Amino acid sequence: MPNYPSAPRHGGFVAGEPSLPPSRGSLSAQQHRGRPSWCPPPAPQEAAARFYPLHALSVANIPNSSRGKTSARSSTAPTPEGLQGRRCKLLEEDSPMAQAGRRQRQRYVTKVGKCQVNLGNIQDKKRFLSDIFTTIVDLKYRWFLFVFMMCYVVTWVVFGFIYFLDAWMRGDVWHQGDPEWQACIENVDGFVSALLLSVESQRTIGYGTRMVTANCAEGVILLIAQSIVGSMIDAMMVGCMFVKISRPKKRAQTLIFSKNCVISLRDEKLCLMFRVGDLRESHMVDAKIRAKLIKSRQTAEGEFIPLEQSELNLGYDTGEDRLFLVEPQIICHVINRHSPFWDMSAESLRREQFEIIIILEGIVEATGMTCQARTSYTEDEILWGYRFEPCMSLEKGAFQVDYSRFEMTFEVQTPAASAKELQELRELEQQEHSTLSLYWDQLVQPCALPGPGQDSLLGMAVPATAPGQDSLLGMAVPATAPAQDSLGMAVPASTAQGGRDEPAQRDCPA
């Protein structure tokens, strides 16, 4: 589509409108593949309308609450051929091959931001023990609670056993109720009582019935050691619990992304866009967003690179990647020469397999911790020829955000060609326009002022000795000219005699 009309058009496409050929493969061949024998092939205009959608108005506030891909001709009554074509399309989408292809699609990052990568065959696992704090915090809650309880239970049991062993070796167990016996640990007559002494000592309960006396030095040392170990366990476990509860990962649950990406024109450039929003009133400080393209490829040397990561520019050079995330914002990636989608059209998009990872980072205003939210978009979650509907309005002196319209999109007129083909078409049009402008400038260029021996209209050289002028064109005519043409123009004598005239000298193009 060389020219992008600003006025709306209704009901189909203009006959004779130029269209760009698909960049890769044939559309008809792809549509016939997997089609039942009784299904008729789609009409050319139907295929064109699929990739050149029309909309009544390319404005944002359109009363359209549906998120489905609604055709511009949906208001007309369906014909039997259209119903048969829709039935064939449904059968193609519900075929076992199509469902198997969708089931086999494995995401690199889920929609909620979880990375689908499992690490295995790690030989040097002692590295995890060197960073025991991070290892405990990264545990799942069921394992974290298990470790939390076992740290206290093990220390209580170990020190209780030591207390019972000391009392048994010194004979305190066998002299219970003897007033003349100087016991090291009073009121310990078994392992259970020694365990209660351990719990009361470490948790500083102090019921007063069981205690360590000054009659033995080892009892005092055991009490000091248990107090120190208990304080260390309290510091580590309480710290791990606090960090795990207040992790900024939970703050990322209130950062939302749109379910789909859209591709449409913005400022006459093809752009990939998605929407991001924050549900909390406490804002993210210094929020930054970036995007990665995950795609496998094979090099020219035959090397296969699985899941290669390439950067998508979201405005890093202009600072547009730094967000003031107060209201939902539409993030735009301009598809230019440096974009990996430079030569990707609407048709080739359906045959590609890639994944776009979106990473939003910022500082939580309440805690000062860095938060990261992630999501991903696969190729089947990109809508070509759509735009997001606005979700903000002015009510009672403030801007109101309607998150029920956060996911809504509407269809706009978008060429199905790639950005590379559109750029080449624009350059060709500019070249043709410049050629026509140059030719027109030569046509309307003002003539040079005639000299003393030139014609005032055509600038033809006239002999200086011409005594007369032509009555019609005012051209100088030699007095001795024996012949004139039908317009009264002077004819040189050499021409009248059958000789060859010299070429005319003109300042303006013919």
From TrEMBL:
It comes from Geospiza parvula (Small tree-finch). Coiled coil: none annotated. Signal peptide: none annotated. This is G protein-activated inward rectifier potassium channel 3. GO terms for biological process: potassium ion import across plasma membrane; regulation of monoatomic ion transmembrane transport. It is found in: Membrane. Gene3D superfamilies: 1.10.287.70, G protein-activated inward rectifier potassium channel 1. Belongs to the inward rectifier-type potassium channel (TC 1.A.2.1) family. KCNJ9 subfamily. Residues 1-44, 62-86, 486-510 are annotated as: Disordered. Pfam families: IRK, IRK_C. The chain crosses the membrane at residues 143-165, 220-243. Its main location: membrane. The keyword Zinc does not apply. GO terms for cellular component: monoatomic ion channel complex; plasma membrane. Associates with KCNJ3/GIRK1 to form a G-protein-activated heteromultimer pore-forming unit. Interacts (via PDZ-binding motif) with SNX27 (via PDZ domain); the interaction is required when endocytosed to prevent degradation in lysosomes and promote recycling to the plasma membrane. Residues 62-78 have a biased composition (Polar residues). GO terms for molecular function: inward rectifier potassium channel activity. Keywords: Ion channel, Ion transport, Membrane, Potassium, Potassium transport, Transmembrane, Transmembrane helix, Transport, Voltage-gated channel. It catalyses: K(+)(in) = K(+)(out).
